[in-house]
């Protein structure tokens, strides 16, 4: 499948922003940096993220729906333990009924992959000796300007792993390119880690072992892999990645406040039944209180025996006649 349409789209956005910023900032290099091209890459990120913002909101809503369904998913797992086929059918039916899509969580990342590949291809070909200058909508002047664009005297198409011949064709110093690229790779790794950590801290670790493994891969695996892949990325692509991470940090913070994670209900603690205290005062325990005494009743007065003379109940009374 040809990706020419992606290269044309990325080139058009990049060149449009460069023309806008070239009219605002100085076209010359300030601090060894051609800021119009740097800002064009930054606002390429802004453009893509604004376009994908509705998809990102759907991703958060889908994650919340999946989180709310976890109790029902656990019930299905217990009910169909050992029967994976039935379990998968029941789970798909549950997702369809509740309108939850497990794949929505990865959709924004997948949609950005063509943009990343397009920019990677576009910047990689920015070499003064490239005969195909007028390609993907570029003019010869724009190509020459981008080929000589620099960040702190390091060319945007330079890489940490660039060979001496490649750097010579770009008119760049090996030490400068490695220093600028190395610092950017470190920032890229740190911001990639922080974006994953921010989401996990807000939503919590998944209880499902497979989802937890994916979270660990996102948190640790991808940043570590950038130690290797970062050496082949052009400096312009690393600028794109770092800007994208910073944008993600801010966007996630806003979305997580607007759509806060679900807080699982706390398990009710059963009330303790009152136990009678042991007697004897063992270990400082109080002795059991004595049972309440029944109210005293008036003593029964025995009736007179048969044949006996009645008596006067009053003190000092005399027998009646």
Please tag this protein with its features.
58% helix; mainly alpha; 2 strands; single chain; 321 residues; 10 helices; 1% strand
Output mean pLDDT: 79
- Major β-sheet annotation: 2 strands, antiparallel
**CA(first)-CA(last) distance:** 135 Å
Low-pLDDT stretches are 277-288
Helix-strand layout with pairing:
Layout: H1 4-22, H2 35-68, H3 70-79, H4 84-98, H5 107-124, H6 140-147, E1 150-151, E2 154-155, H7 164-170, H8 174-203, H9 209-229, H10 235-258
Helix pairs in contact: 1-2, 1-5, 2-5, 2-10, 3-4, 5-10, 8-9, 8-10
Architecture overview:
It contains ten helices and two strands. With about 325 residues, it is mostly helical. It has a two-stranded antiparallel sheet. Helix 3 runs antiparallel to helix 4 and helix 5 packs antiparallel against helix 10. The longest helix is centred in the first third of the chain and has 34 residues. About 5% of the residues have low confidence.
Give a quick precis of the structure.
The protein is mainly α. Helix content is 58%, strand content 1%. The longest helix is centred in the N-terminal third of the chain and has 34 residues, at 35-68.
């Amino acid at each position: 499948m040809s990706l020419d349409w992606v290269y044309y789209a990325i080139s058009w956005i990049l060149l449009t922003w460069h023309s806008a910023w070239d009219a605002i900032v100085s076209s010359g290099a300030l601090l060894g940096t051609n800021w119009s091209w740097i800002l064009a890459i930054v606002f390429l990120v802004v453009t893509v993220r604004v376009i994908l913002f509705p998809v990102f909101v759907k991703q958060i809503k889908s994650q919340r729906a999946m989180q709310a369904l976890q109790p029902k998913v656990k019930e299905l797992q217990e009910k169909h333990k050992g029967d994976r086929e039935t379990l998968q059918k029941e789970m798909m039916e549950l997702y369809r009924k509740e309108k939850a899509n497990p794949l929505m969580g990865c959709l924004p990342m997948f949609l950005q992959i063509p943009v990343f590949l397009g920019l990677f291809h576009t910047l990689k070909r920015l070499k003064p000796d490239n005969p195909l200058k007028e390609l993907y909508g570029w003019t010869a002047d724009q190509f020459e300007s981008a080929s000589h664009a620099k960040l702190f005297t390091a060319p945007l198409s330079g890489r940490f792993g660039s060979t001496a011949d490649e750097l010579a064709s770009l008119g760049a110093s090996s030490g400068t390119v490695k220093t600028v690229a190395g610092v950017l790779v470190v920032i890229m790794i740190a911001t990639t880690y922080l974006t994953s950590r921010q989401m996990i801290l807000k939503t919590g670790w998944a209880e499902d072992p497979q989802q937890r493994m994916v979270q660990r891969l996102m948190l640790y695996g991808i940043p570590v892999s950038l130690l290797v892949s970062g050496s082949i990325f052009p400096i312009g692509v690393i600028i794109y990645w770092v800007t994208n991470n910073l944008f993600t940090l801010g966007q996630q913070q806003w979305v997580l406040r607007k759509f806060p994670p679900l807080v699982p209900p706390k398990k009710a603690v059963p009330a303790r039944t009152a136990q009678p205290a042991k007697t004897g005062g063992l270990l400082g325990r109080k002795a059991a209180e004595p049972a309440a005494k029944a109210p005293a009743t008036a003593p029964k007065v025995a009736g007179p025996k048969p044949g006996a003379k009645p008596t006067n109940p009053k003190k000092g009374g005399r027998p009646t006649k």
